[in-house]
Amino acid sequence: MTLRFEYHSHTTYFLKCIQSIADATATPIAYSIDFPNIFVDFNENVDEFTKALDQYLYNSIFFKNIQIYEESPSSQGSIAHIPSSIALCPNCIKEMLDPSSRRFYYPFTSCNSCGYQSSLLIHYPFERPNTLLNFFKPCNECQEELKTNPFRKNYPLNTCIECNIPIKLTDKKGLKVLFANEKEEFKQIFDIAANALKDGKRVRIKTFRGYKRFYLEKDNKSYLLINRLNEEFLVLPMEKRALFSIERPQMYLTTSSGEIVEAVGVWDGFTTLLMASLDADYCYFDEKEDADLFIDFDLPITFYEAPKYFINKHFCFFRPGSESLFPKYCDSSKTALLGSFLLHNGIIDKVEHFKEVETDSITVFQEEPIEHSSIKVQDLARAVFESVLKEHGITEPTVGVYFSDRVKFFYKKQTIKEIFDFGEIKFEAKRKVVEQFQKRFPERYEAFEKENDFILKAARVIGFDGDFDAFNKLSLSFGGKGGVSIDCRVEENGFDYSSFYASIMSFVLADADSKLIAYSIFESLGDFLSNQAVSIYRETKASHIVLCGAFIANSAFFSRFTRNAPMTKVNIEYPIDNESALLGVQ
Fold first, then answer.
1. Which CATH number goes with the domain that contains 517?
2. DSSP alpha helices (H): ranges in 203-361?
3. How far is CA 366 from the centre of its chain?
4. Mean pLDDT calculated for residue range 498-522
5. Where are the beta strands (DSSP E) in 538-584?
6. Largest CA distance in the chain
7. Residue 158 burial (CB count, 10 A)
8. What does the alpha-carbon distance between residue 194 and residue 56 come to, in Å, rounded to a whole number?
9. Residue 186 in domain
10. Residue 47 half-sphere exposure, CB side, CA atoms within 13 Å?
11. Who is most buried in 94, 115, 482, 512, counting CB within 10 A?
12. CA 332 to CA 585: how far, in whole Å?
């Protein structure tokens, strides 16, 4: 029998999970990969293996479907395992919550196919001597597991309470409250933390996604940590599946009262055990430092922030900064650097995980603190556009729209050409509406003049001083069915910024609701950019329209754009900006 798994990611943890399940059922398998398909062929233990797949194979955002396939794989696949940056599998969670287990309330529990393995990596290759656990000798039982446990066979990060990584609980003065080095002490720490939350206190914990501060009373900048969904949330099946996938993305949800919240499911051993002791459906968290209690450990791990997931009807993609999507394989011989991420030897990961980087040349997309005899500079927007073409395997003529702090239009036939750019922001202040606005809202106008970001200048006009994510959330909170029309037009040398901002000022002077204006800004830009793209698409007789850039992750904008241009393509497994440039490097 051959099973075809449609899996849209160049990570290896999903395949590793299938292999572990095969080992657990003593089922010999052969596999081959024809991306995005994984073909698994087996002839023994058919019932046992398929039942085990149903029991142990976790849900992944990238896993679309499974089908029986008529043909067997052409050859045995061969792929080196790279570490994961994902949540814990159900099997490991079960161990952590079993009082008879050697891993009861042990937050560093993981296996070959789950957990934040990459956080403990020092450098490649992924072997125990190259990880932070090199300094911890496995106990006899962990040593035996490396041979006998199918889920931890040769697992580089095998550890339990007997050979543990200690954790400590301290108060706000830095005084030690409890040091966990024995079985009972690990649970005590999480129980104390949970009781502190119930008493209205705040607990800051070093998690694999960074330091987070947890509490029960919501404030204006809280994120939501979900343990169980209840009737307070209006969640579509597609959203629920994503929320509790093994990738545990951060996503916008709607409450029954209509409030927009940014939520995430428990993502590692620390958050899982905190919520187990708290026994609550959810709590809140942020990244502030002040707290009453602190849970910490001494290993200098690498943090990977949450994947940030966007869903709009049948479109789904990741926002920039989705660090936990990495590391992953990339079919490229290039070496390229973007901030904290490096593409080298066909792998994209944090820079510090590459011990040595020998390359004839390196590509960058911005000014980077490096020295090399051959540094190539590539336009970020162009590379992001190219990444979408690569993900979809597009070779036909294509129109591209990049919507971020810069706005660009591209056209690719044989080569990529930039055909339009919004250009530098030029604003004509000598207009009656501008003078009226300046007189009535002098502080807003001052903030508007100081702001350089295209979209955030508009936010300052309506009196909003947050970043793009906060402004995006404000627009999402508008409950109406449609916005007002903001003036979007082209002038001789680019976008007509003066008319755009003056139009927004006129609605502010008319005392229009700020949520309505925020929504309308994105909706109007969605109309404008899609109409421009469709016009070019028709004139050039292109086959596709590609949409990319950080600012497309807005429901009002994206709905309007894709309504006018339903043929739109976006990134699939890579974020819509920044990190995807490493795939699109030329």
1. 3.30.420.40
2. 237-243, 269-278
3. 22
4. 97
5. 544-548, 568-569
6. 80
7. 25
8. 30
9. yes
10. 0
11. 115
12. 9
155 and 39 both lie in a single domain: no
Contact 484, 519 (CB under 8 A): no
- How is residue 251 written in tokens? 């996503």
Number of structural domains, the chain?
4
| The pair of three-digit structure tokens given for residue 207, joined into one six-digit string | 């998690």
Check if the beta carbon of residue 445 is closer than 8 Å to that of residue 457.
no
The residue segments making up the domain with residue 118 are 80-307
pLDDT category, 78, cuts 50, 70, 90? low
- Same domain (yes/no): 262, 162: yes
| Domain closes at, from 307, 333, 356 | 307
Average pLDDT of the segment spanning 82-87: 98
Q: Is residue 72 predicted with pLDDT exceeding 90? A: no
Q: Give residue-wise pLDDT tens across range 249-274.
A: 999 999 988 889 999 999 999 999 99
Q: Looking at the structure, do residues 476 and 535 belong to the same domain, yes or no?
A: yes
Average pLDDT in the chain: 95
Encoded amino acid at 238, one letter: M
Residue whose C-alpha is closest to residue 434's, from 422, 448, 424, 423: 448
Whole-angstrom distance, CA of residue 422 vs CA of residue 488: 11
Per-residue b/e over 31-65, b at no fewer than 16 CB within 10 Å?
bbbeebbbbbbbeebeeebbebbeebbbebbbbee
Q: Are residues 124 and 200 in the same domain?
A: yes
Give CA–CA dist 317/315, Å, rounded.
Answer: 7
CA distance linking residue 130 with residue 120, whole number of Å: 9
CB 172 within 8 A of CB 291: yes
Angle at 506 between CA 503 and CA 510, to 5 degrees: 145
Share of the chain above pLDDT 70, in %: 99
pLDDT tens for 364-373 read: 999 999 999 9
pLDDT of 74 reads 67
pLDDT at 356: 87
Q: pLDDT class for 156, splitting at 50, 70, 90?
A: very high
pTM of the entire predicted model: 0.94
- Cα separation of 110 and 262, whole Å? 27
Q: CA-CA distances (angstroms) from residue 176 to 145, 202, 365, 371, 408?
A: 34, 17, 46, 44, 55
Tokens of 309: 């997931």
Distance CA 87, CA 13 (A): 11
At residue 430, the pLDDT reads: 83
